[in-house]
Each structure stands twice: as C-alpha cells, then as structure tokens.
Design goal:
Layout lengths: L2 H18 L8 H6 L1 E10 L6 E13 L5 E8 L11 E10 L4 E8 L6 E8 L4 E9 L5 E10 L4 E9 L6 E11 L3
Antiparallel strand pairs: 1-2, 1-10, 2-3, 3-4, 4-5, 5-6, 6-7, 7-8, 8-9, 9-10
Length: 185
C-alpha cells in the first residue's frame, strides 16, 4: 500500500473511532458557563447554629482551555481594608468532563486546606445545576465529606453553596454561599 493511501486509511479509521465515542451534545456546557471573570459575594455560616456569621468579597478568574473540555478556576478573596497586602484566601482548581471516569471531575487546592480535594460532579441540564461530592483527607487519618451545589440563574449569575456532611448524623451543614456575577466581556 502506498504511504498516502495508508495515511488516508488510518485517518478514516481514527475519525470513525472518534465519532463513535463522541460526547453527548451539551456535555461541555457547564464547563463553558464557567469561563470569564466573576465577582464573588461570599456569606459564611456558623456550623453549630446555621446562622450567617460574616462575609467577604472576591474575584474568580476562569479560563477555558482551548479544547473547551476543561476550565481553570482561580479565586482570590482579600481581607478587610487595611489588612496585609496578601490575600486572605486563594484557591485554584481545574475541572471538566473526564472521559476516562465518565463524569465531571474537579481538583482543588487552597490556602485553608493542607490536602488536595477531588470533587465528582453531576450536571442537571434542566435545572442548570451542578452537584458535587468530595472526600478530603483531614491529615489525622479521617476524611471530611463535602457536598456543593452550583446553580446558574443565568449566564451571568450563579450561586455555589458549600456543605460539610456531619460525621455522626449525616446532616448537611452549610458552610458558605457564594454569589457570583460575571463581568462584562
């Protein structure tokens, strides 16, 4: 077989295999929705009482990778005015559709935790809500169980609610609620 004919045959086989394994339409929509710069209004909650006990403001910069399958998240929350120049909180994540795991996967690190957190997600296209679950090592031989919901009110408004699952009772304890507004592009 001539090299050009062989190359054409290999290309045909490869593109047929890719088409057979093509993701379902809309699979990358929640990833696309993240792109941009978002202003964050954050409300914290007392785990014991469930009452709001403080707030902060931050900026999240999310960059969609070239293939549209992954997004990087960088969240910076500054302390009160007059505080030291360094941010009070920084976090970095990478998430998207993992074709091997066949689900959404997020890897997150931040200045509050000593361990990497890996989240596994489910997208409900009808309600435009991402549901995340995570187990994070606490450094003492245990894992902390978290749940997050991220609801998109529109393409420019979303709310991330962060819960810890109580170890003994299994009840959800709200830790934070973050309201994001996308800046004009």
């Amino acid at each position: 077989m001539r090299p050009i004919a062989l190359a054409a045959l290999l290309y045909a086989v490869a593109t047929t295999a890719l088409a057979a394994n093509a993701p379902e339409p809309g699979l990358y929509r929640p990833v696309e929705l993240q792109a941009g710069v978002w202003d964050a209004e954050i409300q914290f909650f007392d785990p014991a009482t469930g009452q709001a006990n403080g707030g902060a403001k931050g900026v999240q910069t999310n960059v969609l990778l070239g293939d549209g399958h992954w997004v990087t998240n960088d969240l910076v929350v500054h302390g009160p005015a007059g505080a030291a120049a360094k941010p009070a909180f920084q976090g970095h994540g990478v998430w998207g559709w993992d074709p091997v795991a066949k689900q959404y996967v997020d890897t997150w690190v931040d200045t509050n935790d000593g361990a990497v957190r890996t989240d596994f997600g489910h997208w409900n296209a009808e309600t435009r809500t991402m549901f995340w679950t995570a187990l994070q090592p606490d450094g003492q031989g245990h894992s902390v169980n978290y749940r997050m919901t991220e609801a998109y009110d529109s393409d420019t408004q979303r709310t991330l609610t962060f819960y810890q699952v109580a170890l003994q009772s299994g009840r959800l304890v709200k830790l934070a609620e973050m309201h994001f507004t996308r800046r004009a592009r």
